Amino acid sequence: MFATIGHTIDLMKMSWRVLMLDRELILFPVMSVAAMVLLAVAIFAGGLLGGAFGLAEEGGEGSGGDLALALVLAFGSSFIVIFFNAALVAAALERLRGGDPNVTSGLKAASAHIPQILGWALITTIVTLILQALRDRGGIAGQVASMLGGIAWSLATFFVIPLLVAEGIGPIEAIRRSSSLLRDTWGRQIAASFGFGIVTIGAIIVAAIPGLLLALVHPLLGLAVGIPLVGLAWATVTSLEGIFKAALYDYAIGKDPHGFDRATLQSAYGSDTGGMRGLV
Questions:
Q1: I want to staple 203 with a disulfide (CB 3.0 to 4.6 A). Which of 40, 102, 174, 233 is the partner?
Q2: pTM of the full predicted structure?
Q3: How far apart are the first and last CA of the chain?
Q4: pLDDT tens by residue, 125-143
Q5: Residue 106 and residue 111: Cα distance in Å, rounded?
């Protein structure tokens, strides 16, 4: 575990140097959260005006109006997350390939692949709902199957977003290509996801400390300081992870991402260097 965290820190330092060249990349996760809040407010307001919540009370759980709103929220949230992740990865790829990206160029790149993103959002929503149904209704066996299925799905689709924006292929072909790349990078992707998860938790804890201390003076003061700091910490680590994923993708297809040491990428999460060597 400590080796995994250490290697992740090394890669995060490289990602940090790239982020410092384009600090505006932090805005993509922030815009994603803002868009989801607006979507939730719009759906809630539409449900009130349309009487959907009333239908839910009359028809009970799972009534038509309530279910439709839940599906719209699930699909809309999936699309928003994927779209802004795609914009982040596209901007990161531009920098790693020697360009000078900005928020506009990232959004433009993601917008050019709206059909692919919509298709991927639909697939992601369906898979998420299936896994959730297994977890909620399958008992212990269903919970285990949902957990293992979620891990396998995350790994198999690790490179889908870079593939969508970099190669312009459809989501089904992107899944196939991602799975193909996965055969040579399995261990590294597991370690990367684990390492960044640990760093995210650590960053949020550190960012929350000033807010918790100020909350002793006044709760509102603690919230006013703590929420922005925690949000900034989360957005920063999310941006770093997006940059890392873009760098790992470029390395996996045989490119040399600017700002990243090739040897470090090659042996990122183990002493063996055979994982990706067959791809480069």
A1: 233
A2: 0.82
A3: 27
A4: 999 999 999 888 878 888 8
A5: 9
